[in-house]
Amino acid sequence: MEEWRYSRIDSLDPDRYQRLDQPSTKPAEHPELARITAAVGATSAYVETCDGFLVGSPDGCDGVVVRPATDLDQAPADLIGPPDAFVLANRAYAPDPVVVTIRAGTTPSAPVVVAHWVAADGAAVFPRIRIEAGDDSEVTVIEVVAGPGRSLVVPVTEIEVGRAARLSYLHVQTLGDHAWQIGRQASRVDADASLTSAAVALGGDYARLRTDSALVGPGASSRLLALYFGTGTQMHDFRTVQDHRAAKTSSDLLYKGAVANTARSVYSGLIRVEKGARGTNAFQTNRNLVLHDGAHADSVPNLEIEDNDVRCSHASAVGPVSEDERFYLESRGVPPEVTDRLITLGFLGEVIEQLPLPSLGPVLSDALAAKLGVAERLQGERLENGR
Amino acid sequence: MSTLVIEGLQARIAGRDILRGIDLTIASGEVHAVMGPNGSGKSTLSHVLLGRPGYEVTGGRVTLDGEDMLALPTWRRAQAGLFLGMQYPIEVSGVSLGDTLTESFRAGGRDPAAVGAAVAGEAARVGLDSRLLDRALNVDLSGGERKRNETVQLAVLRPRFAVLDEIDSGLDVDALRAVSRRVEAATTEFDLGVLAITHYTRLLRELRPDHVHVLSKGRIVRSGGPELAEELERTGYAEWADVVDEGGRAGSAQPVVDPFAGHLADPFADPLA
Q1: Total domains in the fold of chain A
Q2: Is A192 helix (H, G, I), strand (E, B) or coil?
Q3: Which of A52, A202, A252, B94 is the most core-located residue (most Cβ within 10 A)?
Q4: CA-wise closest residue to A121 among A52, A30, A234, A24
Q5: Which of A324, A336, A346 sits opposite B95 (nearest CB)?
């Protein structure tokens, strides 16, 4: 099936994962989450789950309302579309789905943080969240999926952006190197509203995230961003749909990733412009840096355009560190391992600069630098063993 | 006192012989100008000295105080004291001048804390807007800004020898003066030896050469003092275009056409030439 092409779905053994009746541990301080929450600072709502179960009773302020949901299946049918097995499993098994509502016309001064901590080993974990940004509201939401557990995480995030609302959303995934993620995000952006939806993928053994963004009202716009960095044997798998269903809508996508050692990545993106979506602008750029010979990146852009009056473009690139750039830095006296580190961090830094919540930038840059260190060590060991 | 010795240097690119035996000896504090028509091998010489990928050395030696430069990777040649000022400085997106020089200092065992102040001071000296210092290397810089930027790096790194590959191309009169004055000052300030490769004599009004060499078809065909540059100013390169290569067109005043440094391919070609 095209949708799973290049993925590792064939090596998923569902029998390895158990559903849980309760979280595997009591809530505790998690240094990874603490670094992120410290960088975010004050919040207008803080929601935390452990292995998919709510921790405490979250509360919001400043126009943000957080409530447990039992009626999420009542969400507009066109938000996610035909559900696949993982969405169905999430709907059936998510223990504590949560709805975050931003009241119409409000602009909460601080971001909303939703943190999913995965502690369990061998568990199937189903976080689900629905974000409803009321008409003419403006807010930033950050969702973090983190934790050391060797589990299968199946997060589903539904986002509704009301008329003329402005929502910035950031998904940060820093799972352990043995976890799997098969994530699904779907957004619906109404007239004159704008959505920035960003994803950062650092962890996981196989971590997939499908992001569908539908522009359903005239004048709606979306900006889709991602950065990913795979080391060791990791695989990051991104699928996107920029779905233009109304006139004068615009979408702009920039996904940049790097693969080191024998890591792999997939980007597969579709721009779909429905008949009647006149005056659409849709852009899609995917660039991948391949740091070592054993690493591999696939990039597959697609267009499906049913209206004539549109401006669309896509660009994709997969390649090693530029020999010219490396030569320039080396000619200044910078050793090659450092030139490649500077170039890689600079390459991914272009996305960091554009993410919602600039205060997270240093935390993410540090995490990328640490991963580069791991990649260099692994590559060194690999060369040693190869001798 | 250091000495850079180039002996019998031969190099090819894509299977074509470009350098056919270059001999040059440069001492600290000296300024040598290598002049020549397009296609004579000027840019190849500069790139080979720093080990740019794609150029194959087929013979000869390059030593800095006896140390074999050709055996070293590029970054070690730089740490040994060579600097290349490029004709077309390469854009490195996402990487700042400060980070680059900091890492160079660190790799060379110098105190990286000194970089910030040194960059600010040198930028002011060559008239490079300090706001440009935070940009990624050479990204969104004009031709003149790039050359000022190269000069800032040279002055902060304080190499023993600088190879300047047409540092004068793409410069307006003010920038040319700022860049060449700074390099000239470096020859006394930190005893910099300079190998200035240029097509035009105008660079040499501020950066005064002790020795001038004419490069044609991959060989030094004549060497002399500053008066040789003045002679070239009057006569051009016509005399040299066919001195060496038996394949050359006798009596032709046209520069040799070389796909790697063609006159038409040079967006910074001097309109005054």
Answers
A1: 1
A2: coil
A3: A52
A4: A24
A5: A346
The number of angstroms, rounded, from the C-alpha of B52 to the middle of its chain's C-alpha atoms is: 13
Residues of B whose CB is below 8 A from A345? 94
Within a domain: A4: no
Would you give the distance in Å from CA A209 to the centre of its chain?
6
Across the interface, which of B90, B95, B153 has its CB nearest the CB of A324? B90
SS3 A274: coil
Q: In this model, does residue A271 exceed pLDDT 60?
A: yes
Chain-chain contact of B95 with A343 (C-beta, under 8 angstroms)? yes
| Rg of chain B, C-alpha, whole Å | 18
> What are the pLDDT digits (tens) for A287-323?
999 999 999 999 999 899 998 889 999 999 999 999 9
Confidence band for A118, pLDDT divided at 50, 70 and 90:
very high
- Segments forming the whole domain that contains residue A93: 36-386
Long-range contacts at B233-236 (CB < 8 A, ≥ 24 apart): B233/B201
CATH number of B3-240: 3.40.50.300
Q: Please give the Cα distance from A181 to B22 (Å, whole number).
A: 61
- Give the number of beta-carbon pairs within 8 Å between A and B: 81
Find all residues with CB under 8 Å of A72, minimum gap 6, and list them: A91, A94, A97, A99, A128, A130, A158
- What does the pLDDT read at residue B244? 43
Q: Looking up tokens 């355009």, which residue turns up? A: A305
Neighbours of B266 (CB within 10 A): 16
Question: What are φ and ψ of residue B144, in 5° steps?
Answer: -65, -40
What are the residue boundaries of the structural domains of chain B, listed by start? 3-240
Per the structure block, which two tokens stand in for A339? 């030139």
Residue A14 lies in a domain: no
More confident residue, A245 or A11: A245
Strands B3-13 and B55-64 turn out to be antiparallel
Q: 10-residue block means of pLDDT along chain B (273 residues)?
A: 97 94 97 90 95 96 97 98 95 94 97 96 95 90 92 98 91 90 96 93 88 94 92 79 43 38 42 42
A332 touches chain B (CB under 8 A): yes
Ramachandran bin of B87, using left for φ above 0, alpha for ψ from -120 to 50, beta for the remaining angles: alpha
Nearest to A343 among B83, B84, B92 (CB): B92
SS (H, E, C) A244-259: ECCCCCEEEEEEEEEE
For residue A27, being part of any structural domain is answered with: no
Q: Are A163 and A135 in contact (CB under 8 A)?
A: yes
B107–A325 CB contact, under 8 Å: no
* Rounded alpha-carbon distances, angstroms, from residue B151 to A88, B189, B196: 62, 14, 13
Closest alpha carbon to A303 in A274, A270, A255:
A270
CB contact under 8 A, B50 and A323: no
A26 belongs to a structural domain: no
Q: Shortest Cα distance from B123 to chain A (angstroms)?
A: 17
Which tokens belong to A371?
């991963």
Name, in order, each residue with C-beta under 8 angstroms of B146's C-beta and a sequence gap of 6 or more.
B89, B138, B170
Q: Could you count the other beta carbons within 10 Å of the beta carbon of residue A262?
A: 19
Asked whether the beta carbons of residue B94 and residue A324 sit closer than 8 angstroms, the reply is no
- Name the residue among B75, B91, B103 with its Cβ closest to that of A342: B103
